[in-house]
Amino acid sequence: MSPQSDTPKVTGLKLKRKSRQLEISFDNGQQYTLSCELLRVYSPSAEVHGHGNPVLVTHKKNVNIDAITPVGNYAVKLVFDDGHDTGLYSWKVLYDLATNQVDLWENYLARLRAAKASREPLIDMAVKYHT
């Protein structure tokens, strides 16, 4: 069996805009909540991964997701409100982010501290969503 086939499939995604979180349900019964910030700073895109040399993404504390588009039956494309839209989040990527989020978050904060960088947005802005 390939590692991809060992990965649970996503059965549900629910974006909570106000709290900037994405709830993810898997077919093994597990559910996780990931912040939009974590999803953005760990985007699987070449832009973030720097073609093998990961880029430290900063100033994304208030980032949110504008759109979620299915890609076949194995991934979703997340469109963030900062314009980033090039990462494909496979079920494996989502599961890895979900199950390792505590360590990933601590690593991210340590990288920010080491670079004397910030999570805070460059420009404070109030975003209103109309329903």
From TrEMBL:
Record-level Gene Ontology MF annotations: metal ion binding
Domain of life of the native organism: Bacteria
Alphabetically ordered keywords of this record: Iron, Metal-binding
Gene3D superfamilies reported in the protein's UniProt record: 3.30.2020.30
One Pfam family linked to the record: GBBH-like_N
Domain Gamma-butyrobetaine hydroxylase-like N-terminal: 14-95
Protein name in UniProt: DUF971 domain-containing protein
